[in-house]
Amino acid sequence: AVVPVANKPRPSIGIMGGTFDPIHHGHLVAASEAMSVFNLDQVVFVPTQMQPFKAGRKVTSAEHRYLMTVIATASNNRFTVSRVDIDRGGTTYTIDTLRDIHQQRPDADLFFITGADALQQIVSWKDSDKLFEMAHFIGVTRPGHKLDASGLPKNAVSLLEVPAMAISSSDCRARVREGKPVWYLVPDGVVQWINKYGLYKN
Ligand code: ATP
Ligand code: MG
């Protein structure tokens, strides 16, 4: 009989997909909280190329969004950034993201971290069963925002309340356009990047 030599647990990797236009402290707190509660070894941030439900909206170039994500995560040695969605190109589908990360890290258990709103959309897709085979899903909610968990497969999805963070990328973009500060809503380096390249001015 084959006896396992060492009982080394499989590493667990969180995947945080997003447009990150721009990345803000809500994203970072959600990733940090998921890492702590689910004992993840690392979180990979994956900027999307194009999101199905954001088609038609003007999105900042993938390279700017990628680089701002790198800057925002640079100080945390458990946070990394992956280019899989950007380099694949076209519309980003979560199933492709999971397949690519799994191919790179077949040794690891994957946890897909997503806002509860996005989670409800994902669950309604036709191939959602396959998604739940590939990863455990963590739906992050804000205190006071109740998520309807009925219809979500119990053992494939967990809900996680993160500290109140009423920050959204849309709001950050609007603030920049109106000349209002985004200091402390996004990391300092991201504020400087936005100013340096004049992003979100119109
Ligand atoms: P937009 O306002 O343009 O929709 P966003 O702030 O929702 O942008 P995304 O890049 O679309 O940012 O979000 C990536 C993921 O992070 C999504 O799953 C989203 O639900 C989640 N998320 C966004 N903002 C927060 C927040 N303040 N707290 C927790 N999770 C968040
Ligand atoms: Mg959003």
TrEMBL record:
Pfam families: CTP_transf_like (PF01467)
Keywords: ATP-binding, NAD, Nucleotide-binding, Nucleotidyltransferase, Pyridine nucleotide biosynthesis, Transferase
Name under which the protein is recorded: Probable nicotinate-nucleotide adenylyltransferase
Catalytic activity: nicotinate beta-D-ribonucleotide + ATP + H(+) = deamido-NAD(+) + diphosphate
E.C. no: 2.7.7.18
One GO MF term: nicotinate-nucleotide adenylyltransferase activity
Ranges for domain Cytidyltransferase-like: 15-175
Protein function: Catalyzes the reversible adenylation of nicotinate mononucleotide (NaMN) to nicotinic acid adenine dinucleotide (NaAD).
Domain of life: Bacteria
EC primary class: transferase
Pathway assignment: Cofactor biosynthesis; NAD(+) biosynthesis; deamido-NAD(+) from nicotinate D-ribonucleotide: step 1/1
Membership in a protein family: Belongs to the NadD family.
